[in-house]
Design brief:
single chain, alpha+beta, seven-stranded mixed sheet, two-stranded antiparallel ribbon, 17 helices
Length: 427
C-alpha cells in the first residue's frame, strides 16, 4: 500500500470519529487530544473546523490527514502514519504533526479490499448476504448518486439547447442511442442539427436522414460509394439552407464498434424515428411503466430507409435486414433517456414526487444484461429490476474499478467493522 492509500485510510477512520478522544504525542513532544473531527471539505484528506487540544490549549481549524496532502498551510494538525518533513504555516511556524499507528486488523482488511482483483468481485458475497432492508438502502443511495450525476448531463443539454426541454430531450435521445464510446459525439450531432431544423424537413423524403448523416462528418470516410456522393451533394444544399456546420468526423470512435452499433446505422435509425414519431417532451415525462416506454420509444421502431436495409456501412452490402430497435434497446432507452430526464425535470421543478416517479420507473424496467450485471449475479447478488442493475453498475464503475474502497459505502462499512472489533478488543 502506498502513501496515498495510507492517507485515505487515515481520513476514512477520521471521518468515522475513530480518533476522537484519542491522545497523541506530537513530534515535538506536544500532548494532543482530538476533541471533534470537524467537517468534510472538497478535499477528502482535509477536514475543516476540527477541534483539538494541544498542551491544554483548545484550537479550531483544518486538519490534514496523511502524507499525500501538502497544500493546506493553515492547518492546526497533520496526522501521518510515518514521519515526513513537517510543513510550514503562513505565519512561518511549523504545523504540529503526529504519527498515528493503524491497528493491524484494520490495515489488513483495507489492503484485502483495495488489492483484490475486480474479477473476483470481493464485495459480491457481502451484498448477497445483506438483508432486504440494508440492500435497498445501499442500492437507493447508489442509484440516486448515479442519477444526480446524469442530471448534470441533462442540465448541460438543457443549457446548450437554449433552455428548451424539447431540445434537451432530443439531445439525450441521441446520446442514449449510441454506445458509450460515442455518447459525446451523438450529443454534438444533436446540437449541430437541432430539433427545430429537423421539424421543418419532416415529410420531405429522406431530408432528415440526409441532414443528420451529412452533419456527422462520417461520409468523408466512404466517399467511394455512389450513395454517399449523392447524400453529400444533397446535404450541401440543405446545409446552406439551414446554416448547418458539419462535424469534422474525427469525434467518432469506430474501432471495435459492433456493426449493430455503427454510428451511421444508429443515425439512420434516429432519422427514421424523428421523422415518424410524434416524440414530445410531455409524453416522455408521463411514462410510468415499461409498457409506456415501449409505446412511446418503440412506436417509430427505428425503421431505417431502404438503403440501410442492406447495409451497415456505406461500402459493405449485406443481406436484407429490417434493423429495427429491439425490446432490449428500447429498455435501455427507458433507463438512459426517460429516467434521467424525469429525474432532472423533477430537480428543475424542485418536485420530489417527480423525482420519485423516475425511481419508480427504474423499478418497472427489466434488468440490463452486460458484463457488470453478470459479474455480480455470478457471485450471488439477486437483481430484480433495472433499479438493481443500475445500482451495481454504479458500485463497480465508481468504486470497484478504481479501487476506491475508502469512499465506497461497502468499503467504509468493512473498515468500520474492523475498527469496532479493535475497539472491543481494547475494552
Amino acid at each position: 500500500m502506498n502513501a496515498l492509500d495510507h492517507s485515505h485510510l487515515i481520513a476514512t477512520l477520521w471521518r468515522m470519529g475513530y480518533f476522537v478522544n484519542t491522545t497523541f504525542t506530537g513530534e515535538q513532544g506536544e500532548n494532543i487530544v482530538i476533541q471533534k473531527a470537524g467537517e468534510e471539505s472538497d478535499n477528502p484528506l482535509i477536514y475543516n473546523n476540527a477541534c483539538i487540544c494541544i498542551d491544554g490549549k483548545t484550537c479550531m481549524g483544518n486538519v490534514m490527514l496523511g502524507s499525500a496532502v501538502e497544500d493546506c498551510t493553515s492547518a492546526i494538525l497533520r496526522l501521518v502514519e510515518e514521519s515526513v518533513p513537517r510543513l510550514m504555516s503562513l505565519e512561518g511556524e511549523l504545523i504540529p504533526q503526529a504519527v498515528v499507528t493503524i491497528p493491524q486488523e484494520i490495515s489488513t482488511r483495507y489492503e484485502e479490499l483495495i488489492n483484490s482483483d475486480i474479477k473476483e468481485c470481493p464485495c459480491g458475497k457481502i451484498v448477497a448476504a445483506m438483508d432486504s432492508l440494508h440492500k435497498t438502502d445501499l442500492f437507493t443511495r447508489l442509484v440516486v448518486s448515479r442519477l444526480q450525476r446524469k442530471c448534470h448531463v441533462v442540465e448541460r443539454a438543457y443549457i446548450e439547447g437554449h433552455s428548451n426541454w424539447c431540445q434537451a430531450m432530443y439531445a439525450m435521445l441521441f446520446r442514449a442511442m449510441g454506445d458509450h464510446k460515442n455518447q459525446e459525439a451523438f450529443q454534438l450531432l444533436a446540437n449541430k442539427v437541432p430539433i427545430h431544423i429537423l421539424s421543418r424537413e419532416r415529410g420531405n423524403g429522406n431530408n432528415v436522414e440526409i441532414m443528420l448523416v451529412g452533419a456527422s462528418g462520417l461520409l468523408k470516410r466512404y466517399c467511394s460509394s455512389s450513395h454517399t456522393r449523392q447524400i453529400m451533394e444533397d446535404f450541401a444544399y440543405l446545409a446552406r439552407k439551414h446554416s448547418i456546420v458539419p462535424m469534422r468526423g474525427g469525434e467518432w470512435v469506430l474501432k471495435g464498434i459492433n456493426p449493430n452499433n455503427h454510428p451511421l446505422l444508429r443515425i439512420s435509425q434516429l432519422a427514421a424515428y424523428v421523422s415518424n414519431t410524434n416524440f414530445i417532451f410531455d409524453k416522455i415525462i408521463a411514462c410510468r411503466n415499461a409498457d409506456d416506454i415501449q409505446a412511446l420509444l418503440g412506436s417509430g421502431e427505428g425503421k431505417v430507409s431502404e438503403y440501410w436495409q442492406t447495409h451497415f456501412t456505406p461500402n459493405k452490402r449485406t443481406s436484407r435486414r429490417p434493423k429495427t430497435l429491439g425490446r432490449d434497446k428500447i429498455n435501455l432507452l427507458g433507463i438512459n433517456l426517460a429516467v434521467p430526464l424525469i429525474f432532472a425535470y423533477g430537480r428543475y421543478l424542485q418536485n420530489e414526487e417527480t423525482k420519485e416517479r423516475a425511481l419508480d420507473l427504474l423499478e418497472k424496467l427489466k434488468v440490463e444484461s452486460n458484463y457488470i450485471t453478470r459479474h455480480w449475479t455470478a457471485h450471488g447478488v439477486t437483481l430484480s429490476s433495472s433499479f438493481d442493475s443500475q445500482a451495481v453498475i454504479e458500485l463497480e464503475n465508481s468504486f470497484c474499478a478504481n479501487h476506491n474502497c475508502w469512499k465506497c459505502p461497502i468499503g467504509r462499512k468493512e473498515i468500520k467493522k474492523a475498527a469496532n472489533i479493535r475497539l472491543i478488543q481494547k475494552k
